[in-house]
Amino acid sequence: MAIPKEGETIQIHSYKHNGKIHRVWQETLVLKGTRNIVIGGNERTLVTESDGRTWLTREPSICYFHAENWFNIICMLREDGVYYYVNMSSPFVFDEKSLKYIDYDLDVKVFPDMSYLILDEDEYAEHKRQMKYPEVIDQILQDNLTQLLGWIKQRKGPFAPDFINVWTSRFEFYKQLQDEKR
To answer: GO MF annotations for this entry (predicted)?
Structure first.
């Protein structure tokens, strides 16, 4: 598997279990790229939905992907604090300048005070039935949801207080470098 390089711009491709494209983020700046972890930043990036509709992200975001965890975490930097949106998903793969994963519908929204809501349980149940998710996938996702909720409660990984400061600074550094090259 290829490894994204720090400072390069990549796309993020989200698929559904049936292999169909779900959503594409046009530009994400790689802040860290290893075999196991990709941390990226984006701001006002174009997002294309499977039906062709497009929209721009509203605020700067730091994105966390891990090759062993069945979730990815989007840290949205808003004026009143950091909000987190977690997609329960397959671990990522990276090839041809694109980070790819399968979105498994369940989402967790985490507020600045670390309270959270589990979202789209009905969508997960419907897609599980429609796309015939194997029982092993269901178990992996439930186990990873439990792990994720532990991270939130323990303020671990992207939920740690210093995570945002470190990666926001790096994002600003790379954005400045890009601006200087233009």
So the answer is: magnesium ion binding; nucleoside diphosphate phosphatase activity; ribonucleoside triphosphate phosphatase activity
